[in-house]
Amino acid sequence: MKGKIGLEEHFATEATIMDSHGYLAEKIWPELKSRLLDIQEKRLAFMDKFGVEMMILSLNAPAIQAIPNTKLAIETAQKSNDFLADEIHKRPDRFAGLAALPMQDTDAAIRELERCARELGFVGILVNGFSQIGEPDTAVYLDEKMYRPFWETVEKLNMPFYLHPRNPLQKHAQIYEGHPWLLGPTWAFGQETAVHALRLMCSGLFDVYPKLKIILGHMGEGLPFSMWRVDNRNAWVNEPPDYPAKNLISDYFLKNFYITTSGNFRTQALINTMLEIGSDRILFSADYPFEDVGHASQWFDKAEISENDRQKIGRTNALNLFQIGR
Q1: Is the terminal CB of the chain with fewer CB neighbours within 10 Å at N or C?
Q2: Is 206 helix (H, G, I), strand (E, B) or coil?
Q3: Contact (Cβ atoms closer than 8 angstroms) between residue 202 and residue 249
Q4: What's the Cα-to-Cα distance from 303 to each of 31, 261, 296, 310, rounded to whole Å?
Q5: What pLDDT does residue 326 have?
Q6: Residue 277: which of 191, 213, 233 has the closest Cα?
Q7: Which residues pair with 258 in a beta bridge?
């Protein structure tokens, strides 16, 4: 399929590049680094080869969220967003941007979001999970009350919000001790992000701001498979769940969440996700450069789904969600 749009596709700046070091073997690092720092050459060549018309770019992880110094987090976010805006300006037909935000300071995050939306022309937001604030061992999640004014602004600006993974802090990761291969995309990324998303759903956030649009990558971080059990555990006791939200968790999942195919190129998983949330809420992505554009595209182009669904997932859902070309 030609004309695909990917929206979990990453870049790095010199200030954030080392955050991606160590996820792959050391011998791979020079190539991964070059792909992260490149936007206009290797990246475009891969896009042209595999029928990707546009990438909606976002900063690598954990980047801004892992800077405990609030002043430095604000400065790094601004510089990263300015860099991305300059690169998009060179090829606005091929690239769009998701804002990186300093969630260490709610007011600063709102100001930077408004700047990215109104001045830089970005089409959405990507935040790398929890933020470390003040001390490296802190982990502040986005369902906290301090972020309600931020979410109000997100809804007002109608900006889709990508909740991107990061590893848990070491003090919260005892279960992975001695098993480092389970960290990162193998398992820890998905587990961390799925719980964060569930916290948002059960917090009552979407009762207050019902028009929020949250995106999860990697075929939904396992949640499409688990939502029935989330809502129906121990159903025979007929006791209402003890959380602030007014509705079932799955109600918010079906209404407020979108899912991408990033890093999960499996037709069975795609079909399960389509059955759970519908093809109108699924979007193609590769997770470049951590995953391969060719692997993503060659799988998706031949996946056993209807051509109508392929066009929606591969292209038109992204155009509609991010209001591209309007």
Answers
A1: C
A2: helix
A3: yes
A4: 29, 12, 10, 8
A5: 66
A6: 213
A7: 215
Burial bucket for residue 238 (CB in 10 Å: 0-12, 13-18, 19+): exposed
Hey, what CATH topology would domain 4-321 get?
TIM Barrel (3.20.20)
- Quick one: how many helices (H) and strands (E) in the chain? 13, 8
As to burial, measured by CB atoms within 10 angstroms (0-12 exposed, 13-18 middle, 19+ buried), residue 326 is exposed
203's tokens: 């917090």
pLDDT digits (tens, 9 = 90+) for 59-98: 999 999 999 999 999 999 999 999 999 999 999 999 999 9
Q: Quick one: CA torsion of 206, 210, 212, 213, rounded to 10 degrees?
A: 90
**Catalytically annotated residue among 19, 105, 143, 287:** 287
Which residues, in sequence order, are CB contacts of 30 under 8 Å at separation 6+?
A: none
Is this model's pTM higher than 0.70 or not? yes
Q: Given phi > 0 = left and psi -120 to 50 = alpha, else beta, which region is 51?
A: left
Q: Count CB-CB contacts under 10 A for residue 308.
A: 10
Q: And the tokens for 281?
A: 């809420």
Strand order in the sheet with 214-216: 4-11, 52-59, 95-99, 124-127, 161-163, 214-216, 257-260, 282-283
Tell me whether residue 287 is one of the annotated catalytic residues. yes
Are 152 and 209 within 8 A, CB to CB? yes
Q: What's the CA gap between 314 and 5, in Å, rounded?
A: 6
